[in-house]
């Protein structure tokens, strides 16, 4: 039985419960002349059963939709974007179509409906596409204040940060921010991410200030 409709798909289609082989065999043994029905009676009862089942399914489905909507609204907040704002777009990855990542930033060109916005298509063609706001995320520009955290030192001394080479055209995988965090904590986390975008790039970086040597044992093959 499907919880949203209160009935199984078989019952919604045929107007009766699915019978097993044992039930069919039992009906053959117990069948009598009184149980036989003419075609008109069978069709009339089938039509009445289907009409009753469909009415119950529609009512149960409406109740399930209202319950799901109330649960979703309790954990969501209204969002809006402005024309000209920079956003990230959630699209399938170019390497794996089953995975999605945040690409951008791109500019919001127009608000189509209260929940959809028109933006550039992230393929360099210059065309426009309408996206739902759930597929858009605000892009925060990098500021000077986010770079000061590298100058702070703790009780264990300063932590060296080596410059890396990373292309701004590569895909950036933005981490998901937990909704249970406070507003101040979310802001601090966004600033930390924006100051370290090279860490979240799918393209490995490179530094010239440190090297790592891998030493093998003789001529033995470590892994084949």
TrEMBL record:
Pfam family, one: Integrase_p58_C
InterPro entries tied to this protein: Integrase_p58-like_C, Retrovirus_Pol_polyprotein
Domain of life: Eukaryota
Sequence ranges assigned to domain Integrase p58-like C-terminal in this UniProt record: 104-137
PANTHER family the UniProt entry points to: INTEGRASE CATALYTIC DOMAIN-CONTAINING PROTEIN, PROTEIN CBG26694
Protein's name in the database: Integrase p58-like C-terminal domain-containing protein
Organism expressing this protein natively: Pleurodeles waltl
Species lineage: Eukaryota, Metazoa, Chordata, Craniata, Vertebrata
């Amino acid at each position: 039985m499907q919880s949203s409709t209160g009935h199984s798909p078989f019952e919604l289609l045929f107007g009766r419960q699915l019978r097993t082989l044992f039930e069919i065999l039992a009906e053959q043994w117990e069948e009598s002349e009184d149980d036989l029905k003419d075609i008109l009676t069978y069709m009339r009862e089938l039509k009445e059963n289907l009409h009753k089942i469909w009415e119950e399914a529609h009512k149960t489905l409406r109740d399930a939709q209202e319950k799901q909507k109330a649960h979703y609204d309790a954990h969501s907040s209204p969002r809006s974007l402005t024309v000209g704002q920079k956003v990230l777009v959630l699209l399938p990855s170019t390497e794996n179509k089953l995975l999605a990542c945040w690409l951008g930033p791109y500019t919001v060109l127009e608000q189509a409906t209260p929940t959809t916005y028109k933006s550039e298509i992230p393929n360099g063609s210059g065309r426009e596409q309408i996206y739902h706001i759930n597929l858009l995320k605000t892009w925060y520009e990098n500021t000077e204040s986010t770079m000061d955290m590298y100058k702070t030192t703790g009780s264990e001394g300063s932590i060296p940060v080596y410059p890396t080479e990373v292309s701004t055209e590569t895909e950036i995988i933005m981490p998901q921010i937990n909704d249970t965090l406070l507003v101040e904590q979310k802001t601090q986390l966004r600033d930390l991410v924006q100051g370290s975008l090279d860490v979240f790039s799918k393209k490995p970086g490179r530094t010239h200030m440190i090297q790592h040597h891998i030493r093998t044992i003789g001529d033995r093959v470590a892994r084949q």
